[in-house]
Amino acid sequence: xxxxxxxxxxxxxxxxxxxxxxxxxxxxxxxxxxxxxxxxxxxxxxxxxxxxxxxxxxxxxxxxxxxxxxxxxxxxxxxxxxxxxxxxxxxxxxxxxxxxxxxxxxxxxxxxxxxxxxxxxxxxxxxxxxxxxxxxxxxxxxxxxxxxxxxxxxxxxxxxxxxxxxxxxxxxxxxxxxxxxxxxxxxxxxxxxxxxxxxxxxxxxxxxxxxxxxxxxxxxxxxxxxxxxxxxxxxxxxxxxxxxxxxxxxxxxxxxx
Length: 257
Fold this sequence. Notes:
Elements: E1 8-12, H1 17-28, E2 32-37, H2 40-52, E3 56-61, H3 67-81, E4 86-89, H4 105-132, E5 137-142, H5 155-175, E6 180-187, H6 193-200, H7 205-215, H8 225-236, E7 247-250
Parallel strand pairs: 1-2, 1-4, 2-3, 4-5, 5-6, 6-7
Helix pairs in contact: 1-8, 3-4, 4-5, 6-7
């Protein structure tokens, strides 16, 4: 039996990268998974791939920064499966890599709309369905090591990832009496398609990028999307029934230095 057998999970930003790895992982372990993404074609492709392998999945086109879109998405999941056990607030964007005095305010707000408003709106509109669902229930916010520590650029990204980490703590306390757990995951450098493209444009190319990024992590290498997906699987499962209001740091020792 899978570790999340019989659960229904909604994963935002699930058409690519970490989100896709999470969706695949949950499906392999027995969950019915809603693939939520603004890229409809890619979301349907992921859902089809899961169902072709014998899993249960549906694709839902959503813009997590638009309340009406989020409300409709959660309603569609309920109509399909009549339950919602797990919400993974994974959708996010990187934002401008500039110091605070150089960041355009509209760019700041656009990044916050996805990275902060998105988890807020998804949580807001998922809670009612989580309350009606029997069994262990869990919300997981995707934060970052840069929601824990600072760096010399991307202040909007750091602020947003810190916000969703603390949102998880507050929501954990709020919903604990109802049996709904809320946690955050803080990844280090993960070789997503985005970071692969970033590495390919790096001076010296992808190999140089990987070498430099690997040297920054005490464990000696960067992570893969499945490294994060396994952490989410644990938090989504009833194995973590006593875990709420905390963050799972998956960073190869980066923040231990």
